[in-house]
Amino acid sequence: MKLSLIVTDSGPLITLAVSGALDVLFLPGLPVIVPDMVRHEVIADLSKPGAMRVADWIRANNPHRLTVAPTEVFEEFMLLKSLNPATKTKNRGEQAAAEVLAKALEGQDFGAVLVFEDSAVRKTNFLLRLPDAVVVTSTSEFLFGLESRGVIASAQAILDRAVDVRGNEVLARYLAGTDDSGPLPDWPQTLRPS
To answer: For residue 61, how far is the Cα from the chain centroid?
Structure first.
């Protein structure tokens, strides 16, 4: 299966932002799509770690290197938030990513990479909503895939910088070797630079 685009959830954007490594998403040479709901989750509070960097990165690269994709999930969220300001974003980024992937892959003969922060997503019913042509990978797996192809020097260095800033429990478990996500997928073999 040839992979032709990358869609990302909010976690990878935050991790890569605090690591100063957002541009690694462009290294496979594939179009990058950020769902509008994901953008909102990340930059709604610009005082949070990485939020300002992500906002600046999206502004600098949209539309020539990345696309912010509109979703019904975000429209619905904004409507609900106008009725009840306490409405939470929980799971809406994932729903928006699934919506974007379904639209982008409908009737196509290529696949996509979905980059998630938490490899435990494989254990949820979320995967049932994804098209078959989607390779789901964690931020760590994505980075180590790039390293295995010689595209970046050290995935570990990027992850270490993220843990230093975020103290992210999932990344810390992965780095300590206690993550039970299994072996890294062989997705780098299917990526073709543009």
So the answer is: 16
